[in-house]
Specification:
The structure is a homodimer of 354-residue chains. Chain A is α/β, with parallel strands linked by helices. Chain A is 37% helix and 14% strand. In chain A, helix 6 links the parallel strand 3 (104-107) and strand 4. The radius of gyration of chain A is 20 Å and the shape is globular. Chains A, B: Belongs to the class-II pyridoxal-phosphate-dependent aminotransferase family. Histidinol-phosphate aminotransferase subfamily.
């Protein structure tokens, strides 16, 4: 370990993102991107005239973007914070609401970033096991005194929690913040956004990386009471006031305003998810019930590791976690286009036949 | 203070960025932006084809951008970290190199963000007064045991430090990191980049917001030994692995490759700075010697506050700090185009005549 590292930096647990190969052509089903280009409105909005203004700073309040988000969800600007991807939103939230004497709780199988960010801020983390079937038991969190973070639907399982469960959690202790990470909510789970105006202690985070085809634009946001949003802004203005660049502000607003394109994208993914699930089940796979744009699946004839490695050798990238015993038998497959899913199913059928 | 705030978040000292008005047309000389649009190469690089790929994540290693930066400075990719503006670079560096038992030292009059980020990470900050003439005495830092941060040229004074002074500081304790914030170095100060290959403990941070006309693109970077860059990456991958979006990666690389456009921009700013300095001195102003794209100036006939307020009423924005007694008499004026500077000088002459 470098002599220059602070004690705190030595204790970090950096996140390993999915492979982003630049050297070869893969069917890329490993990082839950949308297979569809962004809305034509985004293409139109990113005009030459806007590029020529890149010499000027972006609006630190992200006005254009937060207004578009607020309008879409029937909220006010004071209910919205925009950020450089929802990872940044989560980091701001972890710093704003957790610290000495106020730890954080999350599931054992969930988005890996909660662990990385807990280490970043030196938080005491309580890791709560999911049930055997990977569902979350909300009772496990009701008496936890610190901040609770729940991904809904969960990643990488895809399993959704009913909104009534989160409502119980939010109501059980109004002095505790509940963060609901809705990165994948648009693909079929019940969003908690309608509860925001009723509960001051509920923060919902979302991203435009999945359902709005803007992973490369880095646009995430938080929705919550003005009190919670104001706390997030304290952190943002201590870290990076101009956190969203000019073009992403414009792209995000345009994407949020194109409801038809959004709905069509979702419908296509849901259709392809149903088809892929059926096909894999026909090949003997167990597929967890998914409300996201991915599925977690295991074969009764081939290990997760072999599936991951053999698919990669044959030009298809999926995600597999070597370091997670509970899901080591599974692979996580992003739901792409119909053509991509057909290629995946054909390749898996071929591998199992060999 | 909100009951939801962590103790740490309650202790923050959020930064106040310069005004970014969206409601009126101002001659904007308050946030040190370039008056020139980005290079035509940037405009060309941000093609429709690239926008159509925004559904895919950006390369977390920022390969295209770090390679362009490394090539420009005769370094290797391992010497470069790219980030969402140099504020993010600085935050990563503060976390990587400072913490319990390892504080940070910086000048009393310098970039306000060092204070905000010290508070963000709960660091013990040693604030070292500049001399009466606002020059920095490097001897004050030689025996400081923690991390030293020096803006060179300094902001908001514009005063540059000779490279030999920083060399003394770097050599005086090879176990201590020295961060040289070169946000404005291209406008006339001596860069420490040529020293990077010799000193493992020297980190240089730069930005494309000023000399490369990309403030709205949010592209900053750090240059240093592979050991320091690796430490910054530990923090980055704990905070936000995909920290630079696709379009900014491309824009930054294109801007870095257009050396002619860069030199022409710098030459124009230096010429306008010299002209503005002469004109203000002729009007009785004291202007600090600047190596940056701004000047810090005070009038013998009008207070800094009156200048700031009256100029704003008349459509010209400059920066003034109410909360900084040592520079309360001064205004900071960004060096813009020849037309903008002529408008400023005319307006000031008119105000002083009234």
């Amino acid at each position: 370990m470098s002599r220059f590292l602070s004690t705190e930096a030595a204790c970090l647990a950096p996140y390993t993102p999915g492979e982003q190969p630049t050297d070869a052509q893969y069917i890329k089903l490993n990082t839950n991107e949308s297979p569809f280009s962004p809305s034509p409105r985004v293409v139109k909005a990113l005009s030459r005239a806007e590029v020529l203004k890149l010499n000027l700073y972006s609006d630190p309040t992200c006005g254009v973007l937060t207004d578009a988000i607020a309008a879409r969800y029937g909220l006010r600007r004071e209910n919205v914070l925009a950020a450089n991807g929802s990872d940044e939103v989560l980091a701001f939230a972890f710093r704003a609401f957790c610290g000495q004497g106020r730890g954080v709780a999350y599931a054992d199988i969930t988005y890996g970033f909660y662990k990385a960010q807990s280490a970043l801020f030196g938080l005491e983390a309580t890791v709560v096991p999911l049930r055997e079937d990977f569902t979350l038991r909300v009772e496990d969190y009701l008496n936890f005194p610190g901040t609770v973070v729940i991904a809904n639907p969960n990643a990488p399982t895809g399993i959704a929690l009913p909104r009534t469960d989160i409502q119980r959690l939010v109501e059980s202790n109004p002095d505790r913040v509940v963060i609901v990470d809705e990165a994948y909510v648009d693909f079929g789970a019940e969003s908690c956004v309608p509860m925001i105006l009723r509960y001051e202690n509920l923060l919902v985070t979302q991203t435009m990386s999945k359902s709005r085809s803007l992973a490369g634009g880095r646009v995430g946001f938080a929705l919550g009471s003005p009190e919670l949003i104001s706390a997030l802004n304290r952190v943002k203005y201590s870290f990076n006031p101009y956190n969203v660049n000019r073009l992403s502000l414009i792209a995000g607003a345009a994407a949020m305003e194109d409801e038809d394109y959004f709905r069509d994208s979702i419908a296509a993914i849901e259709k392809n998810r149903a088809w892929t699930t059926r096909e894999l089940e026909a090949l003997g796979f167990t597929v967890l019930p998914s409300s996201a744009n991915f599925i977690l699946a295991k074969s009764d004839r081939m290990s997760g590791e072999t599936l991951y490695r053999t698919l990669k050798e044959n030009g298809i990238l999926v995600r597999w976690w070597a370091d997670q015993p509970r899901i080591r038998d599974y692979i996580r497959v992003t739901i792409g286009s119909a053509e991509q899913m057909a290629a995946l199913v054909d390749e898996i059928a071929r591998l199992l036949d060999m």
